[in-house]
Amino acid sequence: MPRRRITQTDVAAMAGVSQATVSFVLNGSTPAGVRISEETRQRVLDAIRITGYTANPAAQRLAGGGLAQILGVFTYEATFPRASRDFYGPFLTGIEHAAERLGVDLLLFTSAPVQDGRRRLTREGWQRLGVADGCLLLGQHEHRGELQHLLDTNYPFVFIGKRGSDGGRLPYVGADYVGGTVRQIDRLVALGHRRIGYVGMRGTDQPTLDRVDGYRSAMKAQGLTTRFVELDDVAATAAEIVDQRFTAVVVAPENHPEELADELERRGRRVPDDVSVLLLGQPHHPRRGGRPWSGFSVPREEMGARALYLLSRLVADDSPKRDRGTGRTPTDLELHQILVCPDVEGGTAAPARDPRPETDNRTDPA
Amino acid sequence: MPRRRITQTDVAAMAGVSQATVSFVLNGSTPAGVRISEETRQRVLDAIRITGYTANPAAQRLAGGGLAQILGVFTYEATFPRASRDFYGPFLTGIEHAAERLGVDLLLFTSAPVQDGRRRLTREGWQRLGVADGCLLLGQHEHRGELQHLLDTNYPFVFIGKRGSDGGRLPYVGADYVGGTVRQIDRLVALGHRRIGYVGMRGTDQPTLDRVDGYRSAMKAQGLTTRFVELDDVAATAAEIVDQRFTAVVVAPENHPEELADELERRGRRVPDDVSVLLLGQPHHPRRGGRPWSGFSVPREEMGARALYLLSRLVADDSPKRDRGTGRTPTDLELHQILVCPDVEGGTAAPARDPRPETDNRTDPA
DNA sequence: GCCTGCTAATAATGCGCATCATCAGATTGA
DNA sequence: TCAATCTGATGATGCGCATTATTAGCAGGC
C-alpha cells in the first residue's frame, strides 16, 4: 500500500471540474480576473471535505506560491548538553510561544554537524534552511562566510543577541547588558559601596564587552576606580577579592558565581554581609538550593518571542506576495531591538559594612 | 533583488553538461545503468563548489526522490505554559539528541490551533504534517478521527507514552509504570511497611491506570489490602492518611506530593520518619528546595530519543527507496517499547517505625 | 560494411501546485 | 442579427529535481 496522497486532481475529478479550479477555490483570491460561481465553489469544497484532501506543502513551495509558514531556528552551539539546555531553554520557550501566536511551525536545525561544540552552517546546511521561510540564529560564534551567504541570497534571518562590529546590517534582538550593568553599579554605590570589583572580563563575546563597557562608564560616572579581577581559578579570584578589600563585586554568570561565593565564605567573608555579589545575568547552571542572586536578568523568553515576530515580518515583507499587503514599507520595522534587563532583588546585596578606608593589613595568599 | 536560487541547471550550464548529469553526480548512485566519467564528475563538482549550489528540498521532495530528513513533533497539549514545559522539556531534550545523531531536522508543529488547552490536528494540520517524513506524537488525548487518518494515509508516526486500548497497532515508546510501582511497594514492604496507601487514582490516562494496576498486583502478591485515598483536596487527603494510620503512601506526581507532605507534617507526621512517601514518577512542578523524593523516575529523555530512532526506522522502511536497504523486514523493529523506570533513592522513605498492628482508634473524617 | 556491445551522456517526463492566457457560452447594445 | 461585453471556467506552463528512455560515439567480431 504505497501511501498515495490525494491531490487536487483527485478532488477536481470528484467535483467534475479542472485542477485549476480547485486551486482557485482553495486560494480564494484569483489574481487574474478568474471567477468561480458559488455553486461550483461549494461542489469543490464538498469534494475536499469528503476526500480529506490536504495540500502538498512541497508542491506549494515549489510552485512559488505561498510561504511554507515555517520558521527555522539555528543554534550555533549544540543545544543538547544539559548545560546549554538551561541556557537556551528560555529562548526556545519564547520562540515557541510566538510561533503559536503566529500560527507557524518551527524547524529546529538539529542536522547540521557539530564540530568542536559549535554547529557549522555547511553547504548541506544551506539546503535545509530553504525549507523554512526564514531563520532565527542563536549563539555567539557565527562564521563570516556563512553570514555573507545569508546576505547574498537575501534569505530572511534574525539574530538573537546583539551584534556588534559591522552588525549594522544584521537584524537582531538583543539585551541591554550595558544599561543593566550600569544600574547594578549605581545600586551598589547607593548602598555605600566604593570598592567595586569586576569579575569576568575575558571573552570577546558581545555580552562581555557590553558588561565591561557598562562597568567602566558607570564607575567613571561615579568617580570610582575600575578594578578588574581576572585570575584563572575561582579560589584565586576569591583570594584577590578578599585581598583587595572589595566590598562588592559584579560577576558575569559564566564565571561560576556560586563557587566564588563559596570560596569567599570559606575565607571568612560572608555574602552579602561582608561582600555584596551582583550577578550580571541569570546563572548558567542554576543549582538546587543555590543562592538567590541579586543583579539583573536577561529577558530571554521575550527576546525569543520578539525575534520571531521580527522574523515573521521580515519574511512577510520579503515575500513576493508583499504587494497585497498594506503597502507598509519595510523600514518601519525595528531591525535592531535592545530589550531592558530588569533588576532582580535577591539576597546577595547589602549595604557596605564599613565605608571608611581600613588599614592595609592584607595577607598575600597565592 | 528577488532572491534567486542557484539551480542544477545553472550548475549544468557552467560545467557544460545537462541538468540530469548534475543530478546523477549529486546522487552518486545511478539506478539505471547511467555512467558518468570521472572527468565530467569533477567538472560538475567544481561547478557546484564555485556556485555554492544548494538543492531545493521542496523540489527534491516533490520529485519523489529522497526523504526531507525532517521529523515532526506534535504535542497535543500546548507546550508553552511553564508547567508543561517542565514536563515536556526532557522529552524534547532526548528527541533533539537523537535528531542530532541521526542528522535530521526537527519540525515542531506549533501552528495547530489550541482549543481549551489541547491541540487539535485539523485539516490544516494535516497539510503541515506532510513536510516531515514522519511524526512523533506527545500527550494524552489524541482524537480518534485524527488517528484514523494517520493510519489511513499510512503516515509514519510514533507515540511517546504507552497506548492502551486498541493501541495494538500504534507504535509507541512508553515507560514501565506498572513495574516501577510494583518495585516501590516491594521496597516499602521490605522496610517493614504493611499499611500502604495509594494517592491519586483518578484519571483515565494510561500512566494512572498502570500505576493503579501495579499497586493492586503488588499488594495482592504481598498479601496486603489495597487502600486508596481519593479526596478532593490535599489537606483532606493528608488527614485521611493520618487517620488511617498509613505508614507509607505512594503518590502519583500530579497529586501535589509537596503540598501533601507539608500537610502531613503540619499534622505532626514527619516524612519519612512517621510516614514514608514514594513518588511514582518525577514531580511535575519541581520547586526550589523541594524534597528529595524517593520513588522511581520516568526516563523521559531516553523515551524521546528511542521514539525518534524508532520513527526514523519506520520512515526508512516505509520509504520507496527501501529496497536498496539490507532487505531487512520491518518486523524486526520493536513497535512497542517499554522502558524501565529506575528507582530513585531520595530521602522520603524510611523503615516502618512500628510494624506491629495498633488498636483501631480511628476517627472518621469526611 | 554491418551488426553487436559497451560507454557516456542527454532528452523527456512527471511530481502537485499556482498562475497566466485563453476560451465557450450567455447576455447585452445597436 | 452581429459585434461587444461579461461570466465561469479550462488548458498550458513552469517551479527544481529524480528518473527513465533514448541516443551518440566508438571498439570489436563476423
TrEMBL record, chains A, B:
Compositional bias ranges of the Basic and acidic residues kind: 353-366
Q: Name one Pfam family in it.
A: LacI
Matches recorded under SUPFAM superfamilies: lambda repressor-like DNA-binding domains, Periplasmic binding protein-like I
UniProt KW keywords: DNA-binding, Repressor, Transcription, Transcription regulation
Q: Which SMART domains match?
A: HTH_LACI (SM00354)
Residue ranges occupied by any HTH lacI-type domain in the UniProt entry: 6-64
Tell me which residues make up the HTH cro/C1-type domain: 3-30
Mention one GO molecular function: DNA binding
The name on file for this protein is LacI family DNA-binding transcriptional regulator
Q: Where is this region: Disordered?
A: 342-366
Which species is listed as the source? Promicromonospora umidemergens
